[in-house]
Every structure is written in C-alpha cells, then in structure tokens.
Amino acid sequence: MSKEARDIERIYATDEVVAKLRRLADALEKGESFRIQIAGERFRVPKHAEFSVEHERGDGEEEVEFQLKWSTAEADSDPEDDDPVV
C-alpha cells in the first residue's frame, strides 16, 4: 500500500532545528538510518539516503536547502525499528 503524496514545509524554533540537525549529523557520521518527525508524521530515513545541499538566488532572496533523498523500496527493504527519532 503506497502512502499519500505529501509536500510540507515546516518552520521550527532554532533550538528544535539544532536538536534535529545534531541527531541527524550523529546518524550520518555513524552510517545509521534514523527516524524523524515532521509536521506530525514520523518516518525512517535509510542509512543509504543521498544527501545534497542546494543554493538558490532570485527575487531579492537566497535559500539554502539540505536534502535527503531515497527510494521507498530501499527504505522498506532495510527496516530498523529501534532508530532514534530526530
């Protein structure tokens, strides 16, 4: 059963972002998958997710995005139920 499409952007307080990034960095450094909750939905990011950084500029604004991307088949084939929530 596939999950419903979702495209959410959530603003977090600085201390919440720091905590999420710190736990994310720890998981990346250890080569582990991790669980994260965003806007009420909790999911697991597999350890082999692709990490990219994007920079955009235009219309008087600049933006930096940190992005993790993976196939749902990869996430389903490598379950780890004890991952910490980021």
Please provide a brief summary of the model.
This protein has 86 residues and is of the alpha+beta class. Helix content is 27%, strand content 33%. It contains two helices and four strands.
Low confidence ranges = none
Helix/strand-derived category reads alpha+beta
Total strands: 4
Strand content: 25-35%
Mean pLDDT rating: 86
Q: How would a textbook summarize the main sheet?
A: 2 strands, antiparallel
State the strand order across the main sheet.
Answer: 1-2
Shape: globular
Distance between the termini: 25 Å
Name some characteristics of this structure.
single chain, two-stranded antiparallel ribbon, 27% helix, globular, alpha+beta, 86 residues, two-stranded antiparallel sheet
Overview of the structural elements:
The chain has 86 residues and is an alpha+beta fold. Helices cover 27% and strands 33% of the residues. The protein has 2 helices and 4 strands. It has a two-stranded antiparallel ribbon. A hairpin with a 2-residue loop joins strand 3 and strand 4. The longest helix has 17 residues.
